[in-house]
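Late entry, written up from scratch paper. The run itself happened at the end of the previous shift, but nothing got recorded in the book at the time, so transcribing now.
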Amino acid sequence: MRLGEYVYELKGVSQVYKKGKTMVTANDDISLTIREGEILGVLGPNGAGKSTLIKQMVGQLKPTKGQVLFCGEDVMKNTRHVSGMVAYYAQEPHVLSALKVHEALSFTGRLRGMPASEAEKQAKELLEQFDMADVRNKLLKQLSGGQKRLIGIGTVLIGRSPVLIFDEPTNELDPKKRRLVWNLIQERNREGATIILVTHNVLEAEQVVDRAAVINHGRLLAIDHVATLKQKVDQRLKFELTTENGRRAEAAAALHHYGIVQESGENRLLLLVEKNVAGRVLEYIIDHTELPILEYAVVPPSLEDVYFHIDDLAMKEVSAS
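Output as recorded:
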């Protein structure tokens, strides 16, 4: 189905709400376009404003300022058209919890205009792909968090809508199921669907997205192709460090003046530095044997490093203003 060059156009979108006596800005002057057939990753930490943006895009939340266009039409004036074309999976879908598992899927398919037989067929196929055929008659509310997550993803996939929006789709899933979900998303994209993927898991998203939009503090900090964004830190290198148990903070304090330090596990650190500084860091680690560093490796930057770099620059701008 041809939707036009741009599926979505956001123009100066902002959302402000009142919390007690304080006015809170959920997102601020966001402008972007989403092209037909692409996978766009919307990246940022929890509370960054990502979910607010998606609610504006599907017509659940009217922007305080600005405009959201879907296929050239104002979303708020054409919510029925949007709901018929866009399949959206929220982080916490409660509406279907009283239904049986197979009913939740087939009922969603029927709502999208599918014949009952085709909806049942696709529901059965999805349950088999998820390795969940044995729980088809259980109530959705009786499932584990990961199983509920998979059924929620199934409600987006069923009916083959031309635009699919996933909000943190791999939360609560084990590695095998995560890979399955990414494969299904990529397969649907190859069939022509436009995918909008909202996540804070930058490492996973890097493997599937065409472009990435970096959002934090309610602002769009950057949007571009992954390769182009990586060029922003192309003159940098990343140190992956393993520290002695309980001494991660000590190692971070010793290295923070060389570049950007991020915690990446219980006893792990990431240090992003300029290439011309890398030699000095190596010398420092080698010469200072008292440092609680057990292992280290030097690798090129990833999309996750790009995210931290962009967010760090934004925070410095806020501090300076």
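The longest strand covers residues 6-19.
(Scratch paper discarded after transcription.)
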